[in-house]
Structure formats: structure tokens, C-alpha cells
From TrEMBL:
It holds the Pfam family RraA-like. SUPFAM superfamilies: RraA-like. InterPro entries: RraA/RraA-like, RraA/RraA-like_sf. This is Putative 4-hydroxy-4-methyl-2-oxoglutarate aldolase. The lineage of its organism: Bacteria, Pseudomonadati, Pseudomonadota, Alphaproteobacteria, Hyphomicrobiales. Its cofactor is a divalent metal cation.
Amino acid sequence: MAVGFRILSRKRVVAGEWVERARALPVANISDVMSRMAAGGATLRPMHAAGGMAGPALTVKTRPGDNLMVHKALDIAVAGDVIVVDAGGDLSNAIFGEMMLAQAARRGVAGIVIHGAIRDAAAIRANPLPVFAAGVTHRGPYKDGPGEINGPIAIGGMAIQSGDLVLGDDDGVLAVAIDDCRAVIEAAEAKQAAETKQMAAIEAGTLDRSWVDASLRRLGCEMPEV
């Protein structure tokens, strides 16, 4: 067994229903109903033209600065996959660029997450295929390995198993474990519905803001009586 340099089989994949329902929700609302305890880190920023991302994770763990296993992931990805690469967050060498973007688009990949750097930033910025990364550098990658595909990875403390639901929008990247998807998505939909009513109340000038003063009094804040 070549631990650290192997391609594993993906045993489970999040159901398409949860992918589609999650796609209609803000990542922030999904994060909120997960107790705000999961995040891919503030450094993962959208590098593409615009638009959100949702799909099952195809995980890659690679040595910083090397993208051999990322190329292999592009070859085995199926339509709708989100390729999620843990490259250690290193920004010395780009892990992904324009040529790989074209290959990803041809495979029907739903998105790319690079915990590391990209290059060809202008081409990626002009393209609608979602790409999230931690930075940009012109220095290219090596292609020597090692690495793993479809193994567990962690980005910014957020654990991701291959097949988990991975989401992204302007606020960042989030993963939801397969077994948590129903509870999380249903709770996020309820939160979104509540926020829609709240926005209507704000626009109508009828929103109850008494909770602010109530919280301040509960926490012992000294303030004048109104």
C-alpha cells in the first residue's frame, strides 16, 4: 500500500437533490445552520467571473507546488464534480491554470477549489466556471507527485471526504458531510424563508429591533433610558 501516493475509489456521493437545493441557498445561511463551525478559510476566494458552485467533492491531496495528481483528477472527474485540492495552502507555485481550466470545462466539472495558488488569472477571471483559490503566482508547478485522490482532506480545519457536498459563492467555500445534508439543507431553507420575511419587514419599516436593547441590558451595558 503506497500511503500518500495512491488513487482510491469513491465509495459514496451526495445525492443530486441536495446539490440542487443547496445551489439555491447562500453559503452564509448554510454555514449559520452548521453553528458557524465549518469553513474553508478566508483565503479561499472566487477567482472566476461570477456565480456559485455546488457538487460532490473529488478530493486531491498533493505536495505543495506539484499538480500531477490534479491532472489525474481531471481525467477521472465526472460531470458535476467539484475538484477540491489540498495543496497545503502554499503560494509558491501555481497548481492550476488556463489549460487545466479548459480540460475541466470539457469534462463538465462544476467547480475547482485550490488550497494553494493559480496562474493565468485573467483567463480564469473571464470564465464562468467556478474556481476558488488562495492566491495567484506566475510560477508554474512540478509534476512528480506524490499525492492522493479520493482520500480525506482538510482545508482551514474543514474536513472533506470525497463525495461530500461542496459549495462556494462570493463568501467562500463550505463542505457538508453526506450524512448531514438533509438536516443542514432543510434548516438552511427555513432560515432563508425567515430572512425573506425579515427583509420585507425592513423595507416596510416594521421590523422589531427591540432585541438589541434587550441584549445590551442582559449583558450589563450601561446606557441611558429612552
